[in-house]
Amino acid sequence: xxxxxxxxxxxxxxxxxxxxxxxxxxxxxxxxxxxxxxxxxxxxxxxxxxxxxxxxxxxxxxxxxxxxxxxxxxxxxxxxxxxxxxxxxxxxxxxxxxxxxxxxxxxxxxxxxxxxxxxxxxxxxxxxxxxxxxxxxxxxxxxxxxxxxxxxxxxxxxxxxxxxxxxxxxxxxxxxxxxxxxxxxxxxxxxxxxxxxxxxxxxxxxxxxxxxxxxxxxxxxxxxxxxxxxxxxxxx
Length: 236
Hints:
Strand content: 35-45%
Low-confidence stretches: none
Number of strands: 10
Structural class: alpha+beta
Distance between the termini: 31 Å
Mean pLDDT: 95
Number of helices: 4
Strand order of the largest sheet: 1-3-4-5-2-7-10-9-8-6
Largest sheet: 10 strands, antiparallel
């Protein structure tokens, strides 16, 4: 299991002095990326082969959101590979071991030119997989979609990651921003599932649709009527 410590600064928190959900996803991605480098399947290896890692799904449960100036530890480890799908799990804890959140994710490796899944990207390599009894269950397919058009977002330069696509934490910002401050004065996210169905590129116009219930929402991002991502959120 790999561990990465994070200090929560002013740029990481919202107006309630609590860790932004987008910052949480950024921490998960940074820990996963660094661990991939450590075990020998990081960007130096994939780029040389004309490949890159992508996240296909996340499931995140939040029990107690950390706050400004807190120090936290993100622990991550790969699960057993499922053909060309690579599960990865996370635990977010205080320095003394209190569980704040946990997550699961599924990853794949794509060809850089054709953007097709590579079925055997690391021949002969055995991932150091492990499992915990209480880990987050792997994310599932979100079958519903949001119906009501809420807003539009255009992908700009600062939204892009090193793969030249919309960064994963930016997806979360697009989702969070469909509501205003007064909504989040009374709603805290306790669980979020997200399916990344297609890559969103520079200049794309993303239409955001939502279907809201009393304590949950389905939020869908579309480009030219094609579903690019789908999210399910539960509030407390």
